[in-house]
Write a structure and sequence with these properties.
Blueprint (H helix, E strand, L loop, with lengths): L4 E3 L9 E6 L5 H9 L2 H4 L5 E7 L4 H7 L2 E7 L5 H15 L5 E6 L3 E2 L1 H7 L8 E7 L27 E10 H10 L9 H11 L3 E4 L13 E2 L8 H10 L3
Parallel strand pairs: 2-3, 2-5, 3-4, 7-9
Antiparallel strand pairs: 1-4, 5-8, 6-10, 7-8
Helix pairs in contact: 4-6
Enzyme class: transferase
Keywords: Glycosyltransferase, Golgi apparatus, Membrane, Signal-anchor, Transferase, Transmembrane, Transmembrane helix
Family: Belongs to the glycosyltransferase 31 family.
Length: 243
């Protein structure tokens, strides 16, 4: 059963692509960082939509900015895959003109010029584009948020997967994921889940080293994966980028 949509963003007519930013409902400081910095620079390429579920009241913020898509389930790390499937379902049902889906986390900086250049290259079929990882072991330490128990996924290593902090996928790829979501073991790590589906289907994963980049050099999307930068740290990093 698909989750209900509680709040919808205001979108332009017939967008070709949308940039969805995954965020927790209480992370208004990160959303305001993005609104104050790179959001306005990217909106000529793609409207920006913040995606959250339940956990904090976003009513006033959503009314003010018209850029929040909120679903009716608990927003938690263990619902990441559900959040992504909800996004894909929203695209397929409510935005028929969208051909490219861009996804980032809220603790990222997007290089708009580098991102726009990627859309000058024609690609066909179901594909994802991002940092493709290989040979990742399943983590056994139960105290880690990335822990996946053996009863959820029994293999010692994951299949190839596109890192979830930032990536692009085609509309056809979203359709493949929706069609096969219930045919594979459920894993709450959305990028691993996408890799599992890709390994069993015709979904092509294309590698680009500019995604999930932890230095501000030759990057498409900056993201420091080892710790979560504060919104203030991200503002300082943004200010350090040459105009």
């Amino acid at each position: 059963m698909e989750p209900n949509i509680l709040r919808r963003p205001k979108l332009p007519e017939h967008p070709q692509r949308i940039l969805f930013i995954r965020t927790a409902p209480g992370s208004i400081d990160y959303r305001n960082f993005i609104r104050a910095t790179w959001k306005s620079k990217i909106e000529s390429l793609a409207p920006v939509v913040f995606v959250c579920a339940l956990g904090a009241d976003v009513t006033l913020e959503a009314t003010k900015h018209d850029d929040i898509l909120q679903f009716d389930f608990i927003d938690s790390y263990h619902n990441l895959s559900l959040k992504m499937i909800a996004i894909y379902s929203f695209v397929m049902k409510e935005t028929p003109s969208v051909e490219d889906i861009i996804v980032t986390n809220d603790d990222t900086i997007v290089n708009v010029t580098a991102l726009a250049w990627l859309f000058t290259i024609e690609r066909t079929g179901p594909w994802t584009l991002g940092k493709v990882s290989r040979g990742y072991p399943r983590l056994f330490m139960s105290w880690l948020p990335w822990h996946v128990p053996g009863e959820m996924y029994s293999n010692l290593c994951y299949p190839r997967f596109t890192q979830g902090s930032s990536f692009i996928l085609s509309r056809k790829a979203a359709q493949v994921l929706l069609e096969n979501f219930c045919r594979t073991p459920y894993v709450h790590l959305d990028d691993v889940m996408m890799g599992i589906v890709a390994s069993c289907t015709r979904l092509q994963q294309l590698h680009h080293s500019g995604f999930d980049k932890h230095i501000l050099e030759d990057f498409v999307v900056y993201h420091y994966q080892y710790t979560r930068h504060s919104a203030q740290q991200l503002r300082q990093l943004w200010s350090s980028i040459p105009a």
